[in-house]
Every structure is written in C-alpha cells, then in structure tokens.
C-alpha cells in the first residue's frame, strides 16, 4: 500500500483532511486489501452490483414510477447526487470514490412510494422499534444483501457506512455501537459524508423544480417569486431573449445547480481553512459541519424548499398518490403480519430463524418491514392487487 493508501496517482490530489485507505477504520469483517482499487472504489463497486441498487430504478420520491418516463427515479436521483458530490469533492481535494459510494448508497433503504411509503411503514412499526429509511439503508448494506460467501451484507468500510447513516434517533444510536457514537457525542462525520448529504439536497430541490414544471403541478409564474429561480431566470432571458420554453427552463435549472454548488465549494473551503483542520479526526471533533452553504444561499434554499412543500408535495395530485401509497404499504404490512404464510418461503424461513416459530412479534414485524421496504413501486402495487383484488386469480 502506498503512503496514501493505495488509491494510486489520484491520491496525490487528496487534501490532508480527506478520507484515505490508510486512515480508514476498516470493515466489520477483515478482508485482504483490493489489488487494483482503493477500499472506497471497492465499496462503490459493491453498491453498484447490489440488488437494492438495481431496484432504485423502480422507486420514486415524488412521482410514481409509471406516471411518466421523464421523471426522476431514485436511481437517476442517486446518479445526480453522485455527480454533484463528486464535482465538489474533487474541487475540495476530498476522496471522490468515497463521496461517490455514499451518494450511490444513500437511498438504498427507501420504501416504495417515497416519503409516503416510509411514513406508512413507520406507523406500522411504531410498536416494534419504528422504521427509518436512513437506518434501513444501513441495514441493507450491513445485513440484507445476500451476495457474499463469508458475510451478510456488503461489508463496506466504516466511512461509507458512516456517510449512509445521515441521522438516526438517539434510541437507535445507542444500539449502533461505534457508528451511533457520533450522534450521542455530537461529533461530525467525515467531510465526504457531509458533502454527499448536501449534494442530495441540491439534487432533489432542483430536479423537483424541473419535474414539477414538466408535470404541470407548479408554474414558472409561481417560481418567479422564488429568489434562486428568479435570479437565474432573469440572467438567462437577458442573455437569450428568444429561447424556447424547454431550453429556457433547463438553462435556468442548470444555472441554479451551478450557483449552489459553487457557493458550497467556496463556503466550505473557507470554513475548512478557518477551522485549521489537519486531518479527518479534527473534522470529526469539530463543533459543527464544515461543509455548508453561505448564509445567503441557505436562506434562498429554505425559501425554495418551503415553496416546494406548499405547492408541489402538497398538491392534490401528489396527495392523491401518497394517500394510495399509504393504503398499499399499510395493507401489505397488515396482511403479512396477520398471516406470515402469505410471505414468500425465504421470508417465512427467516421469521422462523429470527422470531422462533414467529412468537417474537417485533422480530416478525422487522422481517415483514424488510420485505415491504425492499419492494419497488410497481411490485408493491402488483402484490397488493394479488392480495386484495378478488378478480385477480394469480
Ligand atoms: Mg436522496
């Protein structure tokens, strides 16, 4: 291994506070180091080959998958997050491979139907320890993927797992050992984790504007009341007065992303310098995250978020869909909890193993939640039909 931890020539560009193989806290199950990749490249590659990653293609956050082929899915969202996060990581001298791994894995634990599905499952699980999508992403990579002979899950590095677990309740943190420790001691995660977290925000705020406009749920006139949008809208129409609507909107959204990412890089660079951090342990011990937006940009981001909450996420067409999602997820959970013989055989076997003849209700509920959370939108709809539609015979 080289001094920089085996990531080859690119490692030379790493800042002292970047994550590197040589300072990694390692994997839960010891493995020989990779020969031609860095540890974080290996994490990224394992994520890309996982079943949960492929299922992201048919999961959505705001729009249901079959509403149209143009809308973001969780898969394209994750790729956009990785793009934004990697650009900023390179500019800041952070570990691009780790940043990418976290970005690609951050939504692996999401239920079908986005937040509506997660809220419904959390309600179903309230007497059995609850359901947090963030914690579920960690569960997917730590336990649920069945791909390796020697261990459950993907056996990712501590740093990738730390990045996946953006937040969790204090009660859950107590059960998570070293990974939960930072929530209890109010310590920070590595800069790559901080960055992937904010890249997520930049990605969804902007693509929800784009998707919302395309779906006709929000209008340009409404958005012109929002600082981030209006500023770029003016610049684009000044530069190009005769642009078609489609190009105009894409140009505005593109510039919105660019202005946020530029602000993020410059603000974070200044904060890192001011804090005088010498290495990753200084980053973790800092009193606040060092990756962030300027105050002015944070205000504008909040304004955009508020707008999206009011006009997009609460739009009756979105609500109609989330109400349906709620019924589907709740219905599936109750049917399987009521009669575990309705589950596929491998889940029944798992319940027998974990819940001892199914007597431990919380363990049984967790297996059912894992099954429902792993479903794609269309699989959940189909399963619901099979269980509840009397005219559906298979
Ligand atoms: Mg996300």
Please give the alpha-carbon distance between the first and last residues: 56 Å
The counted number of beta strands is 0
Rg (C-alpha, Å): 22 Å
Structural class designation: mainly alpha
Largest sheet: none
Q: Which stretches are low in confidence, meaning pLDDT under 50 for 5 or more residues running? A: 1-11
Percentage of residues in helical conformation:
55-70%
Overall mean pLDDT stands at 91
Percent of residues in beta strands? under 5%
Order of helices and strands: HHHHHHHHHHHHHHHHHHH
Number of helices: 19
Q: Give the CA-based shape.
A: globular
Q: What small ligands are held by the chains?
A: magnesium ion
How would you summarize the topology of this molecule?
Elements: H1 39-48, H2 51-55, H3 74-92, H4 96-105, H5 114-124, H6 133-144, H7 158-164, H8 170-174, H9 181-185, H10 191-215, H11 220-223, H12 227-239, H13 245-275, H14 280-285, H15 295-313, H16 316-338, H17 345-355, H18 361-374, H19 377-388
Helix pairs in contact: 1-4, 3-4, 3-10, 3-13, 4-7, 4-10, 5-16, 7-10, 10-13, 10-15, 12-13, 16-18, 16-19, 17-18
């Amino acid at each position: 291994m080289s001094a920089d931890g085996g990531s080859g020539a690119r490692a030379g560009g790493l800042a002292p506070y970047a994550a590197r193989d040589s300072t990694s806290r390692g994997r839960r199950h010891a493995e020989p180091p990779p020969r031609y990749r860095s540890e974080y490249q290996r994490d990224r590659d394992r994520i890309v080959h996982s079943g949960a990653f492929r299922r992201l293609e048919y999961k959505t956050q705001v729009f249901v998958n079959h509403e149209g082929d143009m809308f973001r899915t969780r898969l394209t969202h994750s790729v956009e997050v990785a793009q934004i996060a990697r650009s900023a990581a390179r500019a800041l001298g952070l570990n691009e491979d780790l940043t990418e791994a976290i970005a690609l894995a951050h939504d692996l634990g999401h239920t079908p139907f986005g937040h509506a599905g997660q809220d419904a499952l959390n309600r179903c699980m309230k007497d059995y320890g609850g359901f947090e999508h963030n914690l579920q992403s960690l569960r997917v990579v730590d336990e649920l993927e069945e791909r390796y002979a020697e261990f459950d899950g993907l056996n990712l590095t501590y740093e990738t797992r730390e990045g996946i677990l953006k937040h969790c309740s204090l009660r859950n943190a107590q059960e998570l050992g070293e990974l939960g420790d930072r929530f209890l001691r109010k310590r920070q995660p590595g800069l790559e984790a901080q960055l992937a977290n904010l890249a997520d925000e930049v990605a969804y705020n902007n693509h929800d504007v784009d998707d919302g406009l395309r779906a006709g749920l929000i209008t340009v006139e409404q958005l012109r009341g929002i600082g981030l949008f209006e500023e770029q809208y003016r610049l684009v129409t000044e530069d190009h007065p005769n642009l078609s609507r489609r190009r105009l909107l894409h140009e505005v959204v593109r510039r919105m992303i660019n202005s946020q990412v530029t602000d993020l890089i410059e603000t974070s660079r200044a904060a890192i310098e001011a804090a005088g951090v010498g290495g990753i342990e200084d980053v973790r011990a800092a009193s606040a995250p060092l990756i962030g937006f300027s105050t002015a940009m944070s205000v504008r981001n909040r304004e955009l978020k508020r707008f999206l909450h009011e006009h997009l996420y609460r739009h009756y067409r979105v609500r109609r869909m989330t109400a349906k999602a709620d019924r589907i997820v709740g219905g599936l959970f109750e049917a399987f909890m009521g009669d575990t013989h309705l589950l596929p055989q491998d889940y029944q076997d798992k319940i027998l193993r974990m819940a001892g003849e199914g007597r431990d209700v919380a363990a049984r509920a967790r297996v059912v939640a894992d099954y429902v959370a792993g479903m794609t939108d269309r699989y959940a709809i189909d399963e619901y039909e099979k269980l509840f539609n009397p005219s559906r015979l298979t």
